[in-house]
Write a structure and sequence with these properties.
It holds the Pfam family TetR_N. By secondary structure, this protein is mainly α. It is 60% helix and 0% strand. The longest helix has 25 residues.
Length: 217
């Protein structure tokens, strides 16, 4: 009696062009959310991405799905910047500085109005992305503290909220002129993080959890 040969199921993988279209949509959405805010029409995003409206809705059935993907994308890119900084073997504080400037270039300030929209802020993808970023940045800061270069009374929340506040606001053409000041002001902030501290900060070090009551990054 012969044993039936198991049927090999073919795993369906997204086509390369479909993956490229999805990435173009996310990139265009991220750019337009920063420039115009989270309520920009999806049709405009499709035009910026160079795809049809149907392609946008095939990848993202509603605005919440696209906004969530953009937020996760920004956090993932921020996490990659932290990984690159952690891979450096030189000065720990300089690595932290490079991470902060790279984070500002991701325009994480644009996350606040997006996270404040209607989608589920506790979606597993968002929670996972937040935890990855928090862990990587904490490790980066711990390394600078261990080297005696970072003041001990600041937390991840202090760092990330400053990056968000000092980077360009997410919407309004009048804000574009502020771009040239972002890295200048960030460097002033970073100089204030160096140890030994020249002052005593009021309150306690902010964590990412402290920020989730309002704007979560």
């Amino acid at each position: 009696m012969q044993t039936a040969t198991p049927v090999q199921r073919k795993v369906t993988r997204p086509r390369a062009d479909a993956l490229r279209n999805r990435e173009r949509i996310v990139t265009a959405a991220r750019e337009m959310f920063v420039e115009l805010g989270p309520d920009v029409p999806l049709d405009d995003i499709a035009r910026r991405a160079g795809v049809g409206n149907a392609t946008v809705y095939r990848n993202f059935p509603d605005r919440d799905a696209l906004v969530r993907e953009v937020v996760c994308s920004v956090m993932d890119r921020t996490g990659e910047a932290a990984k690159r900084a952690l891979a450096e073997t030189g000065d720990a504080f300089e690595a932290l500085e490079r991470f902060v400037h790279a984070s500002a270039d991701e325009r994480i300030s644009a996350l606040c109005p997006m996270v404040a929209s209607t989608f589920d802020k506790h979606h597993p993808d968002l929670e996972a992305a937040r935890e990855r970023v928090e862990q990587l940045v904490e490790e980066l800061m711990d390394r600078a503290r261990a080297a005696g270069q970072l003041r001990t009374d600041v937390g991840v929340g202090d760092l990330m909220v400053a990056v968000a506040q000092l980077s360009r606001p997410p919407a309004g053409t009048g804000c574009l002129s502020h771009d040239r000041f972002v890295h200048r002001h960030l460097q002033l902030f970073l100089d204030g993080l160096r140890a030994p501290a020249r002052s005593t900060l009021p309150g306690t070090a902010a964590t990412m959890g402290d920020l989730r009551g309002g704007c979560a990054t």
